[in-house]
Q: What sequence folds into this?
C-alpha cells in the first residue's frame, strides 16, 4: 500500500510542478498554497479511487470523518 501511495503522490506533485512552471505571468508562477494542494490532491485521490471514501482516507492518512468534514467545507 505504501508504494502505491508514494506513486500516486509522486505523479500528482510532478503534475502540479509542471503546470506551475508552464504558466506565463509572474503572478501565476507562485506555487499553490498548502490548502490548495490538499484540496486538489483530495479531489485527485477521490477521482482515482472512484470516490471510495474509505480508500481515499487511508491514502491521505486521515479519518473518514475528517475527510467528510474537509469535503463539506470545500464544497466538493
A:
Amino acid at each position: 500500500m505504501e508504494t502505491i501511495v508514494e506513486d500516486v503522490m509522486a505523479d500528482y506533485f510532478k503534475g502540479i510542478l509542471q503546470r506551475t512552471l508552464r504558466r506565463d505571468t509572474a503572478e501565476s508562477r507562485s506555487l499553490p498554497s498548502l490548502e490548495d494542494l490538499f484540496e486538489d490532491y483530495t479531489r485527485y485521490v477521490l477521482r482515482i479511487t472512484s470516490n471510495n471514501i474509505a480508500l481515499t482516507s487511508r491514502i491521505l492518512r486521515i479519518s473518514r470523518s475528517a475527510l467528510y468534514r474537509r469535503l463539506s467545507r470545500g464544497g466538493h
User: Anything to note?
Assistant: The chain has a mean pLDDT of 79. The CA atoms of residues 67 and 73 lie 10 Å apart.
